[in-house]
Amino acid sequence: MEKTPTVTPTVNRRAFLNTLGVTVGGTGLIGAGLVGGSQLLKAAQDPAKGRVPDTPFRTGHMTFLTGAGAVLGEPSIKGHTMAAEEINAQGGLLGKRKIETITADEAAGTDACVKEVRRMKLDAKIDMFTGVISSGTSPAVGPVAEELGLLTILTDGCTDFLFDKAIPNPKYVFRITNIQSSDGITAAIGVAQTWPHVRKIAHIHPDYAYGRNASEHFTLALERLVPGTEVVSESWPKLFTTDFAAHITKIMSAQPDLLVASVWGGDYVAFYKQALRYGLFDKMKVASTIAFGVAPHAIGKDHPEGVLAGVHSNYYFTYPGGDRWPLNKSFVQRYFKRWNEYPNFQSEGAYMALYLLKSAIERANKLTGGWPEDEAIISQLEGLGIDAPSGYLYMRPDHQAYKDAVTGFSKNLPDYEFASWDPARIITIPIRNITAPLGWPKPGTTHNESTAAANWIKTTWPKVVG
Amino acid sequence: MAFLTIQILNSLLYASVLFLIAAGLSLIFGVMRIINLAHGSLYAVGAYVTAWLVGRGIALGLPPGWLFLLLPLGALSVALIGIVIEPLLLRPFYRRAEEYQLLVTFGLIQILEDSIRFIWGGTPLSADALMDALPIIHIGGLLYPAYNLVVIGIGVVAALALWVAIYHTKFGVMLRATSQDRRMASALGLNVGLVYVMAFGIGCFMAGLGGAIVVPTQAAVLGMGIDALVIAFVVVVIGGLGSLKGALVGALVVSFVRTAGIQFFPELELAVLYLIAALVLLVRPTGLFGTA
Q: Which of A232, B8, B59, B188 is most deeply buried (CB count within 10 A of its CB)?
């Protein structure tokens, strides 16, 4: 019997981008959350019900304290610390329990990180674990946190693998940043929206899980949004490389229309400075998933304009801008006052992790009185919607947070000492339109794609024509 | 053709910096028989000090040309650190087993890396004013920053200067004598302690110079020293530890092979270096020019 060939449905690009809900101009604040959350800093707090102990609430925050990763680790600690200070200034959680933090260095390596999580729970008796940046660390410590019954809110380590494979049915582990696959997809949508005529594509990605994921999902999405592209050059520099001269020359020799990059942190700073002097930015469009993911002031005024400068699809401090979303305005002001710099997505994620916890604890307390058990906190965290500096944040019942994916174009504004985003060209995408829906089959069940997202795109996305 | 020319220049640029790091590492091993694991971190200190000095210089309104004088200053600051740590920290360990030397220099890595973060923070530090002080030249319709040629030039001059110093000066004779037989040299009236501190100082100066000249082209970032150390080891494994010629040839091999890897086998960029190192170890365990 002859097999009927499967026909991929086709659609017009503009119509498709519209169904994806892509908004340009930074005016959209659609919100992934369905529930209006409570304000972070309420003037008057409802008093806690019942007897609440006044023992400190101990958190263990793990992030890169040393090495090249510290460029993201520092903002993470700063966001966490600021949230703890603010909550403690109001008396602590439920007005009684002050947050105490012990830190652990993620640079110690995966095995050491796993041991450290055990030690923090068993010896240091932490009540909650937060942090983690690397996608290598989160799938290692996630299962251990589950085994220990340790309440955990990961503030990055956003690999799809964590909830696809490592802990497909999490009970104690939550994650507050957008899932990694949405990063590549967001960049692809940005490209399709802005430069639909690119055909020859060059790639440069750090040679590890994140770079592979970004490359794969970018390509998957772009194939559907801009058919007929071809990859003309690939580069896989080692993570934490700073010499990119040979990569840049190679990319330029292929004469692509577009360069896609997921090089991050200090690597990206070194990359763009070299690429600039070799004239790369004059020869092609550049789209990055995470160029502006570092602390904003790490990028210089020399950064070229018009680069699609992603922020891990999570948060950039100028969006939502102006007076439109006072929560972000005041967060950025307080952060600047406290640390004399602007926050990045790590700062916002680590900051919100504690406020998410606070909100869940308060809700649980209202129901039952007294200090809520972990079970009660978890049941409140699941499905919790809350207002965050980045917009509406919604914790899906499967423990992966949802917030609008966001990316933007670099521009030199007189307001800042560094290149930032063009306020008129910020792109937002409702996250539910670029992630596999709740309950979508995970890899190893009905399919063997690398991620649930990849399978979802291949199964449900139409192909654009024309 | 123009692309090929630029890739060759890129390779020479990388080789210059690698040579400066690896030659220092090799020199220190040749004279003191100690593997200084903190060598890469000293390179990073050179980069950070230079970037910081350039930043200060710009703030004080120094004209761009004068900023070039800050390069040797960055290197000298690392030499000074070396002159302090050799007699105080390392000398007590020369007679101990190698494990102790590795441990103490590994500890030094941690101290230096933490100090860098403590002093300069986690944000990358740049010194691109130096790069922009020189023109961008055109090579067959492509752009190439003239500053990179300066880096290549400094690498060549450093190699020549080191060669002259070791093989054609009295100090070089003392250095080689101490390297061959420390006790005999001492018995003949050589101030071995002074030779040690000078050799270590020169080795550190080279590492610091590598960091100083590379920072305008990239940026000073956390972890750059560890990355450099690993690649410097590949260089000395190929070239032979303790040999100046080995450091030069190793640096050239590593940088040309790396560039070829990037250009033709992007998936193997890193693996190809280790494959060559492994091959050399199999055929000539002491490296191409090593004697140890």
A: A232
